[in-house]
Automatic annotation (TrEMBL):
This is SUMF1/EgtB/PvdO family nonheme iron enzyme. InterPro entries: CTDL_fold, Sulfatase_Mod_Factor_Kinase, SUMF_dom, SUMF_sf. Residues 39-274 form the Sulfatase-modifying factor enzyme-like domain. It comes from Nannocystis bainbridge. It comes from the Bacteria. Pfam families: FGE-sulfatase.
Length: 274
């Protein structure tokens, strides 16, 4: 990956895998949220194996704000109007200092550190949807659509309830269920629960941090091919996969939730598609 020359290979269960690794997803048909009334088809695509890490995001911060997206950057090649909109520029931090401040949304659970340290292999959080979009565009990729993300997590037409299958969630499969009111809840390195990997080798599609996708949180159309919800229904942007502080239910491939796009959330990170 062209933006990963300075990113140390510290990801995965053994701590020695390429944090920028991508895995191909063979396209096909499936039922969104495991509902036969919501069939969809996706073309072949690639999806980051890991959630974007602090170390990987650090390269974006170092290049900011020169790397703000150009109009239409980060578009899905089959979805018209899915690229960067110039009016979104005002929703990005003004400069690198403001960007670093925005990454400190929670003193207890934020993963960003202004200087490199022991958190480089942790998933970046406190990132707004606009920053996640901008990062993926800069990294010569894009945010996955909700349909693509759901397809990868469900194992395509295997219609898995969890990325690993039908078995119950366990600590070996996902990082979830931490009581943030009473526990420290440290986030582990991405890829620390390989028993929970999806069909195509993607880690942490359930738990750790939820993940921004391209779509607004809204009404799923009855049938679609390479589609996304690009109309704002005032419910925010979609974030999929559950997180370290929520229950097994939120980690299913059927669970959907929206967050305000301009706010960085402790519980939300992202990965990129190509």
């Amino acid at each position: 990956m062209p933006r990963c020359h300075a990113v140390a290979p510290v990801c995965g269960d053994a701590g020695d895998d390429d944090c920028c690794a991508s895995a191909a997803v063979a396209g096909g048909g499936f039922d969104r949220i495991n509902d036969p009334g919501l069939p969809a088809t996706v073309a072949d695509f690639e999806l980051d194996r890991y959630e974007v890490t602090v170390g990987r995001f650090r390269q974006f911060v170092a290049d900011y704000p020169r790397n703000r997206p150009a109009p239409d950057a980060g578009a899905h090649p089959r979805i018209e109007g899915s690229g960067w909109q110039p009016e979104w520029d005002a929703l990005l931090p003004a400069d690198a200092a403001a960007l670093q401040v925005s990454l400190q949304c929670d003193a207890n659970f934020r993963t960003w550190t202004d200087a490199p340290g022991e958190a480089e292999e942790l998933p970046i959080n406190c990132v707004s949807w606009y920053l996640a979009f901008a990062f993926c565009a800069w990294d010569e990729g894009r945010l996955p659509t909700e349909t693509e993300w759901n397809y990868a997590a469900a194992g395509g037409n295997e219609q898995r309830l969890f990325p690993w299958g039908a078995g119950a969630a366990t600590a070996a499969r996902a990082n979830f269920g931490c009581d943030t009111a009473t526990e420290a809840c440290p986030l582990p390195a991405v890829g620390s629960t390989p028993q929970g990997d999806g069909k195509w080798g993607h880690a942490d599609l359930a738990g750790n941090v939820a993940e921004w996708v391209l779509d607004f949180h809204g009404t799923l159309t009855p049938e679609c091919r390479d589609c996304a919800i690009l109309q704002d229904e005032t419910f925010g942007r979609e974030a999929r996969g559950g997180d370290f502080a929520h229950t097994e239910m939120e980690m299913t491939t059927t669970f959907r939730i929206g967050y305000a796009a301009d706010s960085g959330q402790t519980f939300v990170g992202f990965r990129c598609a190509r």
